């Protein structure tokens, strides 16, 4: 029996489940994909910042008016009762997400996501003020000098201005922008001030500091995108068959002992999430194409064909599909199904909006007066009619009633409702005592806009007989 070793063993090294964050210094890149990314930046921001300033019929063209509880979209006025259209919009957005992701991966993330867009804007400001990648790295590693403090202060001041204007613009979609301007700088209501600074703070924090951490750790889309991908989904991918083994070589070198990848590391340096695309498909990849723009010029310099990193499918890479075969595999059953459902719902929504009657009527019988006998011996019921004119011009509506012999409205049968207003009117309906059975009788109110025959509502109600 061997004696046991009594020598104390070293304590096991601690294992961390959390990776320490390392700031990513992104190198500037030029190319086809970068150009399209900036086209989308300009398009989305012109749309976002410009829409609140557009006017339509003397008011803001796009406005979710919280006080009036109306949604103005150019000539369309939607009320809380039109929440059905919000549900349709969410369904269309969901199917569009499924379709575009199944076809082209995370295109939205790489080009139109607000996180990506504002990170691009903030990084552009940073690059212009502090310099390129190597200059920024040296600046951050160096001591705090007056120059460094000044550059940082200017950068953050511009970031804060952009964030505040973004917060102000977002609030302007819910409170008319002319009211917000009139309230500047000290007459803002508490909620408007809160939401302006709330959104500004998140813009400043996420685009200025968190950046890729939002995509990697906070955004749920990065986590569930895997279930929407398949081997025929277009993704940014590296061709290991062509690129490996990596190694440096000179242009026109006769002896080629390595793959096309010269291991320059540019694809990593330009990646906004800091991944190495050469390790395969990763959930952190937002599909921006910056690595393609960095790699193609390197291939030109060493005399190799472009496309070592390219936008293609896993099947195309593995089975060497031609472009025609790639397109053929993209048009697979799930894509056709998503497209059919998306088109059907979109067309149905457009048809519903186009044929929507711009008049809403609620008929409520006065429950405090079930039925009573009038001076002339007829039986009368009292009703409250709520008329909602969803157009932006005043309307005159003619009221009538049917469903029982001799039924009629007592009093004025013309109601005027102002533009985009909700009007309530009380009306009295009488019938001869022999016209109906005891108890509930079904009647119908007809409300028609004068000089607009297409604007009419046929509403069901109940008339009580003693």
UniProtKB/TrEMBL annotation:
PROSITE patterns associated with the record: 4FE4S_FER_1 (PS00198), 4FE4S_FER_2 (PS51379)
Positions of the 4Fe-4S ferredoxin-type domain: 252-280
Protein name per Swiss-Prot or TrEMBL: Cytochrome c oxidase accessory protein CcoG
Ranges that cross the membrane: 35-54, 83-104, 157-174, 194-210, 335-354
Keywords from the named record: 4Fe-4S, Electron transport, Iron, Iron-sulfur, Membrane, Metal-binding, Transmembrane, Transmembrane helix, Transport
Naturally occurring in which organism (per UniProt): Dechloromonas hankyongensis
Highest taxon above the source species: Bacteria
Keyword Flavoprotein annotated: no
